[in-house]
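To illustrate the input format used throughout this study, we show a single complete record. The first block contains the structure-token representation of the backbone; no residue identities are included at this stage. The design step must infer an amino acid for every position from geometry alone.
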């Protein structure tokens, strides 16, 4: 197995798993101070992205908080770039079982590294965020909580894949994102395929999770000149599992934010783990 250095961050290890007759690779980091609950976070890059060197800020959080982190590499579409299959026109001819692969990977990593399959979490940005929405609908039993960054619900996902079980969910999204529009793109003007507005997508989770209460707060500015971040919270949902904590849904609205993790405006990686941590099986 090969490793690569990330300046100023812990060093993950390059590894691979056999899947559907081929090999899929990922970068894996298990901190020496793995917490007793043995959690795993899987983090998905965006369209055209690479697992190598991706989001070292999350590696730092993994080291500090004691959870394992996996960063898998997406496949390349015949006529497009690397990513996760969510039905983009540019992904024509691509393998369509990425959702099944990610769930398989979670199970395999828990087996290999002695992690707890009840404490597995999923996050991803942009195309990786779309996969978060898709898996949350298709395989809600696999992940204890899910966090999408600048992700969307494609219209076909909304229309063809009903929600079946509650899953705690959060979304971080800029209102001036010109790639994944806050207001949606039901006419497919951007060429990614039709997708619904972000607030509408989040509202599906609020209703599925049975949340009863809503609140809004402004995050303390990360630094001088940072954009305003409004945290919308829906709480009092149904138990995430029998006897477990209630489901919560969060939407971090970055006013004027672009298509990014929003790291110049908020501690996104820290907020993701803060959300996940409350759903650890003790």
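Output of the design step:
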């Amino acid at each position: 197995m090969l490793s690569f250095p990330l300046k100023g961050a812990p060093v993950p290890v390059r590894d691979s798993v056999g899947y559907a007759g081929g090999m899929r690779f990922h970068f894996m980091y298990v901190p020496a101070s793995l917490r007793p609950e043995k959690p795993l976070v899987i983090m998905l890059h965006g369209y055209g992205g690479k697992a190598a060197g991706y989001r070292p800020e999350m590696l730092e959080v993994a080291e500090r908080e004691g959870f394992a982190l996996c960063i898998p590499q997406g496949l390349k579409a015949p006529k497009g770039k690397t990513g996760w299959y969510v039905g983009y026109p540019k992904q024509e001819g691509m393998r369509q079982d990425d959702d099944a692969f990610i769930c398989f990977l979670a199970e395999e990593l828990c087996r290999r590294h002695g992690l707890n399959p009840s404490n597995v979490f999923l996050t991803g940005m942009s195309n990786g965020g779309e996969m978060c929405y898709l898996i949350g609908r298709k395989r809600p039993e696999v992940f204890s909580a899910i966090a999408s960054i600048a992700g969307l619900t494609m219209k076909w996902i909304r229309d063809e894949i009903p929600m079946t079980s509650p899953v705690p969910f959060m979304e971080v999204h800029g209102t001036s994102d010109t790639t994944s529009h806050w207001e949606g793109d039901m006419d497919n003007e951007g060429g990614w395929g039709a997708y619904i507005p972000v607030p509408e997508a989040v509202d599906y989770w609020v209703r599925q999770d049975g949340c009863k209460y809503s609140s809004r707060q402004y995050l303390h500015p990360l630094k001088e000149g940072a954009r305003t971040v409004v945290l919308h919270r829906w709480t009092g949902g149904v138990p995430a599992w029998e006897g477990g904590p209630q489901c919560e849904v969060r939407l971090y609205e970055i006013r004027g934010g672009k298509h990014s993790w929003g790291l110049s405006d908020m501690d996104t990686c820290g907020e993701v783990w803060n959300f996940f941590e409350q759903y650890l099986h003790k």
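Structural context for interpreting the output: The two ends are 32 Å apart (CA to CA). The chain is about 25% helix and 25% strand.
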